[in-house]
Specification:
This protein is α+β, with helices and mostly antiparallel strands. It has one domain: Roll (Thiol Ester Dehydrase, Chain A). Strands 1, 2, 3, 4, 5 and 6 form a six-stranded antiparallel sheet that branches. Strand 3 and strand 4 form a beta hairpin.
Length: 140
């Protein structure tokens, strides 16, 4: 089994709350950063998505916190897509400290929005296959 796609992030002091913990909203930023980095690694830019008339949308996001993160902590944010047969897909992510400790898990349900019709496309997997220079990054 191959390692999931991941990006490194260092927790910055201004991202922490009064207790010194990483602010809960910033976990979402880290997850989003990893998703866009995965798209870029696959060869998909925002302009290519727009050119195809689609845009990714988040339909549901769940964060499960396990361990605190503090300013200066270095983490890896993983990102893996799970495909079904419908209009949506799942994204599973972990925010892991360098010692392997999972600080948080993020699970999201997403889709691709047809920018003209304002509805989800029927088969987002096919769009990603067509747009990606490297569909294997998506597990395709």
């Amino acid at each position: 089994m191959t390692e999931p796609f991941s990006v490194p992030v260092t927790v910055r002091g201004y991202e922490t709350d009064v207790q010194g913990h990483l602010n809960q909203a910033v976990y979402l930023n880290y997850a989003e950063h990893a998703r866009w980095a995965l798209l870029q690694a696959a060869g998909i830019s925002q302009s290519r998505l727009i050119g195809k008339g689609v845009g990714p949308v988040a339909l549901e996001t769940t964060i499960r916190y396990h361990r605190e993160l503090l300013a200066g902590d270095e983490v890896e944010v993983t990102c893996g897509f799970e495909w079904g047969d419908g209009k949506t897909f799942r994204i599973r992510q972990a925010i892991r400290k360098t010692d392997g400790t999972v600080a948080a898990e993020v699970t999201a349900v997403g889709g691709l929005l047809d920018l003209e019709q304002r509805r989800l496309v029927a088969d987002p997997r096919q769009y990603f296959k067509e747009l990606a220079a490297d569909p294997a990054v998506f597990g395709l």
